[in-house]
Structure formats: structure tokens, C-alpha cells
């Protein structure tokens, strides 16, 4: 439930009460000591605030507009009373723990359990909730820095639980939703505040991850020759694909639904951080270790997810019916149309960047798909039927059309029976990948030995015990050489 308090003039009181009586809304009227206005207070379900308050304002402004016109014809110096009845003169919407009034249950049956309105909360509440979600700059940037350090440690330790912990403490959802709400409501100040906070926060996260990784490397806490691409938590974030975009888009959409319906977005904030914080940490690790494939791949993932979150949240808010209240008004100063132009320009820029990065990711996704098909085609042959594919990892690379290198290293992990060599497997996979993709691909095959024991005298079906031993047995084929 919500409690609405709005200031109206004596002339408009009758029209406002007629609107409230039409909805069967219980209300009280408090006479204002100064100014001649009256304060009307009434409880309504959250789902009904938008429609009821809109009609109250229309009734109030219609009467006040006619009265003001009559007064201006009689006397030009009556602006004080008109100012008190402006649309934004005084309206407060607050939460109510419980309400006891004659018609409350009827209103709840219409707007809460019924289908007369949806779950969306008023525009004013969405705006204020989005702004309240972003903490003070000191808290925001401090928590972002700490989450980046934790994420860096989790990636280097290959510890998923630590990486998840970094997501929990990241405060990124506030800035993301503030920018999205500013876009939909045509609020330039909100849009710039959200984008600026998010960009500075992510830049700080990358810088902190880079500095932390350099310290760990130079101080020999980790082997200087460590191949960071072999760490699973890092490898999962250096090759952006369709699933990565889905994660970011779903996080933004869930955040918008939570904000617009008044549902807690604390858990959604973890999802937003999951799409951003580990990727920012991976960028720093790639820079510190001097591995462009890691840094560039993680950076593109970071950009793609950041834009996907923003666009998805804005699309959901627009779908739920949130629009600029008065497109001709300009709360930020300047020409009336300048705000809309700047907001539209930012939205268009985000779409263009998203499309450009998406094209790169699509090229990478297509290469990965063809590589997986090539590996599956090789293993399915009679010669390699005893092998089982454990994983296929493709190094990220830019398309040749934008100056990227043509070769993308492929690492294939397969399980094989013990003591059965397959010396030509890497060459075979490399040739098959080149035929399917049209690109030469250095292929590294890592073998996992599999030993199986079948107990004698089994009575019911096979009882097998399989052991897999991971050790440094690998073969590399680069441009056709084994």
C-alpha cells in the first residue's frame, strides 16, 4: 500500500474528491494554515497509484487552469496562488505498513488480486528508487575496488566460490538501472550520472585488477610463466559468445522488472555483477601478464555485457509503459529539445557500439561452432571412436576484416584409454578445422588417460570403475606440423 499526499486549491478540492469517490478511495482533507490550499491524503494499492494520481492531477489542474484564467482577466497579479497548484507543487508518495479504512479490501481486490492494473509502480517511484540504489561515491567506488580485487584473486586461484563472493559485494546495479531509467524517462541528468558512475567504476575495477595482478606476478606469489589461459575461470571469460550476451541481457531485464514492480533487486544485483566484475578482472589479468588475447577478449565481453544490460533494462521499462511525462519540458535547462536529442544520441551510440562488438562476437561464435563441429567429426570416425571429448577451447581473435590475425589457437582436451597413442590427432583436427572455417588453426591436444576396471563375476549388468589421470601429455599441430 501507498499513502499519497497532494496539495490542491480550494477551487479544485471538489473535483479531486469526485475522482477519489469514483474509485471508492478513503481520504482525509487537512486545511493549510498559509496559502489557502488544502492537503488531501489517501491510501491506495501500489498498482493503483499511477492511474488514481493521474486523474487527481487532471482534475486539479483543469479546475485551477480555468480559475487562473478567470483571475488573470480580472487581475494580472495573482501568480502566487497559481504556483501553489502547479503539477509538481507538492505531492508525496510513501509506503504504508498497514492501512485500516472502509474500502481498502475492495481496492485490493480490484488492483492487487484482480486484473484492473498490472504490478508496475508509478514513474516517480521508479525514478526515486533508481537514484536511491546508488550509494555515495566513496562507498560505491570502494566496494567496486574491493570486488575487483576479490574477483582477481578468484580468477587466478581458479576458485568459483571466491568469484561469486566478488559479485555479491559489487554495487553496480544502481548505476546500471539509473542510466536505463534516465534513457526511458528522457532524464539527461540521470542518464549521465548512471553512465559516468558505471564507466568510472569499471575503469577503477580494471585498474585495480591490473595493479593487483602485477604485484602478484612481480612478487612471485604466482609463477611468472603462468599461462593464464589455462585457468578455467579466466578461459570462460576471454571468448565472448551468444551465451555471454544472454547473461547480460537477462540481468538487465530482471533488474528492470524488479525495479518497476517494487520487488527487491538485491539478488538481481549479483547477476548484474556476474556479467561485469569477473570480465573487468580478466582484463586486468590479461594486461598484467601481457596476453592480448585475454585482455581484448575480456574487454569486449565487458563492453558487450555492459551495453546489453543497459539496452535490455531500457527495453523492459519501455515495454512496461514508462515514458517521459512531458517531452516538451526540460528539467535540466537549455532548449526544450536538447535533452531529448542528447539522450537519443547516447542511446544510438550504445546501439552502434553494441552492433559493432556484436559483429566481432558473432564472428568468434561462428568460428567456435565450426571448430566444435570439426572436433566432433574427427572423434566420431572409426579411428578415434575410443576417444571422448572433454572440452574444446578457442582463443579469441579479431576478424581479419578489422585487422585481426587469421590464426586462432584451439585447445582440445580428450580422454583416451591408457597407453594408446594418437600421434596424428592434432594434425587431423587442424586440417578439419581449416576445411570448415577457411582459417589455419594451431591445435593443441591434451590427453586425459582413462583406466577402467570391471569386477569379475558380476551378476547384474556392468559395474565399472573409471579413473581419469590428468597429466602433461599433449601434442601440438601448428600450420600442419606435428
UniProtKB/TrEMBL annotation:
PANTHER family: AT15442P-RELATED. The chain crosses the membrane at residues 138-157, 163-185, 197-221, 241-260, 267-289, 295-320, 341-362. The keyword Iron does not apply. The keyword Transmembrane helix applies. Keywords: Membrane, Transmembrane, Transmembrane helix. Residues 60-83 are annotated as: Disordered. InterPro entries: DUF389. This is DUF389 domain-containing protein. Residues 60-76 have a biased composition (Basic and acidic residues). Pfam families: DUF389. It comes from the Archaea.
